[in-house]
Amino acid sequence: MAKFTLPWQDKSRPVRLPELLMLILAVAVGLLSFAIVGYSLTGALSENFWIEAAALIGVALFLHVAVTLLAPWADQVILPAVVFLNGIGLAMIMRLELAGVRGANVVRATQWSLVSAVCAVILLAVLRDHRNLRKFSYLSMIVGLVLLLLPLVPGLGRTINGARRWISLFGFSFQPGEFGKILLAIFFAGYFVTNRDNLALAGPKFLGLQLPRARDLGPIIVVWAVSIAVLVLQTDLGTSLMLFGMFVAMLYLATQRTSWLLIGFLMFGAGAFAAVQTFSHVAARIDGWLNAMDPVVFNRTGGSFQLVSGLFGLANGGLLGTGWGRGFPQLVPLSFSDFIYTSLGEELGLTGILAILVVFLIICERGFRAALGVRDGFGKLLAGGLSFLFALQIFTIIGGNTRLLPLTGLTVPFMAQGGTSMLASWLLIALLLRISDAARRPSYDPGIAQIAAAPVAEHVVPGRDNTGVIIINGENGFDLHDDEPPGGPLDTSATDVLAPVPSGVGQ
C-alpha cells in the first residue's frame, strides 16, 4: 500500500517560493497605495484602510495556499500579477470614493474581489483536468448563446448607458454575456479540435489565397450573425467584437490558414459598416468617436463629453502623473468603472499606465505559454483562445479610452468596479492556471526513474530526449493532435514515478 503524504511533504512538488515573493511585493504596492491615498486626501489613513489591507493580504494568502494544493505546477507569475492589478484598482476606487464620486464603493468592490477569488478556487477544486470540459462542448455553446441573448428578453433585460447588456434578477443586475464568452471559448476549442481537418482542407484559390470550401463557412456565418445581432439589438460593440474576434483567432490557431483571418475581418467589417448605415444608435456611437471634439457632439446627450474628459485627464497627468489624490479624475463620468484607466493615467502618468499595461501583457504571455506547453489539442486551443480574449479586451478598453477605437463599454479586468466583470475575469484566470498546471506537470511513467538513474548514453529510448523527458509533437509546435504520453500527463497514481525534468523547466 502506498504511503499517504500531505501535499507539503511531497518532495516531487515544486516549491512556489517565487510566487510567494512576488505576491508579497504585489500586496505591498497595494497597501502603500491605500496609505498614500488616505494621507493625500484626508491627512490620515482612510477609515477603510485596515479592512482593505486585511482583505488584500487574506485573498493573496488564500489563493497562494489554494493553488499550491490544487494546482502545484501552475504558472507562478499569473497570480501575483492579478493581485497587483487588483490592489491598484481598489486604491483608485478608494480614492474616488473619498472624493465623493457617486457610485464608487471600495468595500463593495473588495467584497466582489473576495467572492470572485473563492469562486476561482472552487473551479480549480472541481475541475481537476481541463480535458473534461470537452465533454460539454455543445452544452457550453447552448448556454453561452442563451446568456449572450438573455438581455433581449422583455422584462428581464436592462439598458444602462445606452447598451442593453444587463439583466435584473432578484434585485441584482449583472452581465450574463461575460460568462457567455468563456463558455463559447470552451465550445470553440472542442469544435475546432474535432473538425480541424475539415476546416483545413484545401479549397479554391483566389488571387493566390487558399480559400475554405463553401460547406465549411457555416460555423463562421452563424457566429458572425450572432455577433452582428448583439451589436445591433443590444448596442454592445464590446461583446460583439470580443465574440467574433475570439472565434476567428481560435479558428486561425486550429487551421493555420490566413484565409480565415481575411474572411473574418471582411465579414465583421462589412456587418459593422451596414449596421452604422442602417441603425441610428450605432451611428451615434461612431459619430461620438470620430467627431469627439465637435462642440455639438461634445454637448449632446450621450455625446463625447466622457471621452474628451478622459483625454484631458491623461493630458493633465503627463509623463509621471499628478500623484495619488492630486488629480481630478472625479470629473470624468464613470471614472471608477469604464474610465478607470484614464483615472490611473492622470494620477500615475504615462509611466504608471505603461507599467500596468506591461503587467497585463505578462498575463497574456503566460497564457499563450501555457497553450504552447500543454499536450492536448483542446487545452492548446482553450488556453490560446482565452489568452487572446483577455488581450483583445485590454486592447479595446485602452483603445476606447484613448480614442484609438470607439467606446465599447467594457471594463478593465481586476481593476474596475463591477462584480460580473471581476467574477468572469477570475474564472478565466482559474482556467489558465489549471491548463498551465497540466502543461508544466511532468509526465509520469513507471520505470522511468530506473532509466534516468543509469548512464544516459546506454539507455536510448524512442520518443525521449537525452534527459529522459518525453518528447511530444516536436520542440515548440502548436500541434493540435491529442497525442498523450503513456498514462497521460495528469495520471498521478501512487504507483507512478516522477519523470526527471531538466533544470529551468517550469520556472
Reconstruct the topology from this structure.
Blueprint: H1 17-42, H2 49-70, H3 78-98, H4 106-126, H5 137-149, E1 157-160, E2 163-169, E3 172-174, H6 177-200, E4 205-206, E5 209-210, H7 218-233, H8 237-255, H9 258-278, H10 280-290, H11 295-299, H12 305-317, H13 340-373, H14 377-401, H15 419-440, H16 448-453
Antiparallel strand pairs: 1-2, 2-3, 4-5
Give the end-to-end Cα distance, rounded to a whole number of Å. 33 Å
Main-sheet strand order equals 1-2-3
Q: Would you tell me the structural class of the helices and strands?
A: mainly alpha
* Rg of Cα set: 24 Å
**Mean pLDDT score, rounded?**
82
Q: How would you portray this structure in words?
A:
With 507 residues, the protein is mainly alpha-helical. 59% of the residues lie in helices and 4% in strands. The strands form 2 sheets. The protein has a 3-stranded antiparallel beta sheet with strand order 1-2-3, with no helix packed on it. It has a two-stranded antiparallel ribbon with strand order 4-5. Strand 4 and strand 5 form a beta hairpin. It is globular and about 70 Å long.
